[in-house]
Amino acid sequence: MSATFVAPSVRVEWAIADRTRLHVHNRPRLGDTSLDQLYATNPYAQHAPSLRPTLETTNAEAGLTVSLGTVRLVTAAGYRYAPAYRYFSYDAQSGLYDVRYNSARILQGRGQIALQGIEGVQASLGLSVRDGTLTSRDTEIPSFAPITADAMLAVSFADGDGFLEAQTRFESPRNASLANDRLDSYFTLDLEGTYALGDQAEIVARAEHLSSGTLTLWKNHPRPPAQVSAGLRLNW
Q: Which helix (DSSP H) or strand (DSSP E) does residue 35 occupy?
């Protein structure tokens, strides 16, 4: 079965005050169909040799960006509609996730606060509140968290020779399948540090997938184990 869609792409910005900008856009999106991308998103998806992309004909958003000295604030609200939306639903019999398609609509509000103009420091905190519905079933999109948050802090020191970065991500409770079996909140933290020993060598240390308890992103599959590594990177 084939279909034709017309989806205009539009972006407009206005400077409504010295430190405030208003943006309105519609950015239609055609998703990826590669298996690499599928399993990067969900490594526990059932084998799906024939994939269709997610097609979002409407990806509209309106928002404000306000700069207050060293602080930048962004608030926005949006609406997305996909006549073909790829989602994952847990199959208890196989213990894996089915790859399925349906039409979907998503209402979203988001906010972000970030530091700007501070030498050697970058930081941001973002929060999204979302309502995703499979339109033909009138039910929540499985594996789609209503609340997500992310944060980042990066600091350079020793005249730029040293660098530290922390990134964290949070997802609220969500359904694993159309049967409404709930997953608890998920949280993970990644840390990375580097220190240059010269032009051609630097010490590198990482700590990835740090979290407390037995949190799972995908039902009945443990999160990736915490990993700590360190080494010497040579550049030539």
A: helix 35-41
Please give the single-letter amino acid code of residue 130: R
Query: Which amino acid belongs to residue 8?
Result: P
- Specify the residue for token string 């991500």: 169
Cβ(28)–Cβ(17) below 8 Å: no
Residue 3 lies inside a defined structural domain of this protein? no
In a domain, 4, yes or no: no
Give helix then strand counts, H and E, for the chain: 1, 16
| pTM of the predicted protein model | 0.86
| Angle at 96 (CA atoms; ends 91, 97), nearest 5 degrees | 70
Question: What is the share, in percent, of the chain residues with pLDDT greater than 70?
Answer: 97
Q: Does 1 score more than 60 pLDDT?
A: no
Structure tokens, 111 = 């906010």
Identify the domain containing residue 135 by its residue range: 10-234
Please tell me the number of Cα atoms within 13 Å of 147 on its side-chain side.
Answer: 7
Q: Is residue 1 part of a domain?
A: no
Which CATH number characterizes residue 79's domain? 2.40.170.20
**What's the structural domain count of the chain?**
1
Q: What percent of the chain has pLDDT over 90?
A: 65
Residue 108 covered by a domain: yes
Tokens of 224: 């990736």
69-94: average pLDDT: 94
